């Protein structure tokens, strides 16, 4: 393999960008985030994210800025709002390859880690969707890989200014994507790694702790600037909502309305699917390398990355499988390193007879064949499966029905709209519908004119005196267009 970097770039770009816009928004996250980005574009308000004109302060706005900019540049299409995640995934893959080469790892291992990251099912799916998790993963990866490089350079008494600058940039990307979680994800790894190193070396070196803390403060400056601007608009309640309610509250469970609350063993049940199709290599690699961690700081670092973040997420009250995305680069490294241990064992069996000897002699062709089949499966899913899912999951028929009613001169309003409905209507209609909050507002709106129509999401038909004009469904959610 003489030119692995260009090959990795091309394969990752193909995996992440092929047929990226051939299906509509699907799921609550895509609809919500795309709708907020569309309203940011329409209102030209780049400080306060809003959904149906109400402040939406779950997370800082980096992904929304990028999505809104893409809408402005390329139009309001699903392809445009998926670009930021896809580019973040591509950058993460190439970043991992470049970092491993700087750490002195062979090209083959660096390439394998990069392509394993790109072909992890959960990672591939998330970087092809709208949301902030791909950006969070990029920021966390950049911060941690730059930290380890700077740590090595300082130990060798070399200049580490560039590495620390990249570390601060990673902290900025992570915190502007996910707030406090963007700080905690790299922070828990660095803390655990430094503690483990101090215990192994049996000495405490203050300088190893001071520099990451100082550069973390530098990386937080963009977030602080945005928070100051948000404070000028919304005052202390806005800061409380984004820093405490939506960060600390999700971790300790005090923010009950946030949802996604699962038992502590939730992620243990997700381990069989967390890093597919490379799960077995990850878990066997962790077991295989366990005795060499004290003498191999490189493996120690990536093992700590994987386990420390997993433990922190397990302790959190709010849990979703997508939160494991920031662990995937470390999992890819462990899997790639163990894969080459197995390949070396096979190389020693090339003279053996039977099936094992045949596999050993053709091990490289078999590996390339497996990778080729896997990439073909992903491309097939992108080309055929995702558009097929539109039949049940797309919001487009629902919003087209709203536009049809509007074209006929009728006024359409939403009744107690959930986030996915609100986001989808803003994104596709590119205007704000009235959101009715109470039954009294609903009856007053419908009674004001016989042409007024309300869209209601509920499991059963609305009771009289409401009359159903049309029933539609998106996934398992039923929607009713009603009048009096």
TrEMBL record:
It is a multi-pass membrane protein. Pfam families: PMT. PANTHER family: MANNOSYLTRANSFERASE YKCB-RELATED (PTHR33908), UNDECAPRENYL PHOSPHATE-ALPHA-4-AMINO-4-DEOXY-L-ARABINOSE ARABINOSYL TRANSFERASE (PTHR33908:SF3). It comes from Pseudomonas kielensis. Its main location: membrane. The chain crosses the membrane at residues 79-100, 107-124, 130-148, 160-177, 212-231, 264-286, 298-316, 322-343, 364-386. The keyword Transmembrane helix applies. Residues 42-229 form the ArnT-like N-terminal domain. One of its GO terms (biological process) is lipopolysaccharide biosynthetic process. It comes from the Bacteria. One of its GO terms (molecular function) is pentosyltransferase activity. This is Glycosyltransferase family 39 protein. InterPro entries: ArnT-like_N, LipidA_mod_glycosyltrf_83. It is found in: Cell membrane. Keywords: Cell membrane, Glycosyltransferase, Membrane, Transferase, Transmembrane, Transmembrane helix. GO terms for cellular component: plasma membrane.
């Amino acid at each position: 393999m003489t030119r692995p970097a260009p090959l990795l770039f091309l394969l990752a770009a193909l995996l992440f960008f092929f047929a990226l816009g051939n299906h509509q928004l699907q799921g609550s996250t895509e609809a919500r985030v795309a709708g907020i980005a569309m309203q940011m574009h329409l209102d030209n308000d780049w400080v306060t994210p809003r959904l149906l004109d109400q402040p939406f302060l779950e997370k800082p706005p980096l992904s929304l800025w990028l999505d809104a900019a893409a809408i402005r540049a390329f139009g309001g299409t699903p392809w445009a709002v998926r670009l930021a995640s896809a580019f973040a995934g591509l950058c993460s893959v190439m970043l991992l390859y470049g970092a491993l080469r700087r750490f002195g790892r062979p090209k083959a291992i660096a390439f394998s880690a990069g392509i394993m990251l790109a072909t992890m099912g959960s990672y591939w799916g998330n970087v092809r969707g709208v949301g902030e998790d791909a950006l969070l993963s990029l920021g966390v990866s950049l911060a941690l890989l730059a930290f380890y490089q700077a740590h090595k350079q300082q130990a060798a008494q070399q200049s580490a200014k560039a590495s620390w600058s990249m570390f601060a940039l990673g902290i900025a990307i992570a915190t502007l994507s996910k707030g406090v979680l963007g700080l905690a994800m790299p922070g828990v790894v660095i803390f655990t790694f430094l503690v483990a190193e101090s215990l192994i070396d049996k000495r405490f070196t203050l300088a190893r702790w001071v520099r990451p803390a100082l550069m973390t403060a530098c990386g937080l400056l963009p977030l602080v600037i945005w928070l100051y601007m948000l404070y000028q608009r919304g005052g202390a309640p806005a800061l409380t909502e984004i820093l405490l309610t939506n960060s600390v509250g999700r971790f300790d469970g005090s923010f009950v309305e946030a949802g996604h609350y699962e038992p502590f063993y939730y992620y243990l049940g997700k381990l069989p699917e967390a890093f597919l199709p490379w799960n077995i290599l990850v878990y066997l690699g962790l077991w295989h390398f366990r005795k060499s961690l004290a003498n191999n700081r490189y493996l120690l670092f990536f093992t700590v990355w994987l386990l420390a973040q997993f433990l922190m997420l397990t302790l959190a009250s709010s849990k979703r499988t997508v939160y494991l995305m920031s662990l995937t680069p470390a999992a890819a490294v462990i899997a790639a390193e163990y894969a080459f241990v197995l390949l070396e064992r096979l190389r020693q069996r090339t003279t053996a007879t039977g099936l094992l000897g045949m596999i050993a002699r053709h091990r490289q062709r078999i590996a390339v064949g497996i990778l080729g089949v896997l990439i073909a499966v992903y491309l097939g899913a992108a080309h055929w499966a995702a558009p097929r899912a539109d039949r049940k999951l797309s919001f487009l028929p629902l919003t087209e029905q709203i536009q049809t009613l509007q074209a006929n001169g009728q006024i359409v309003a939403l009744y107690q709209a959930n986030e996915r409905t609100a986001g989808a209507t803003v994104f596709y209609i590119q205007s704000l519908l009235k959101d009715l909050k109470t039954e009294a507002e609903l009856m007053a709106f419908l009674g004001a004119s016989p042409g007024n129509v309300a869209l209601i999401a509920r499991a059963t038909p609305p009771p009289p005196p409401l009359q159903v004009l049309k029933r539609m469904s998106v996934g398992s959610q039923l929607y009713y267009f009603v009048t009096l």
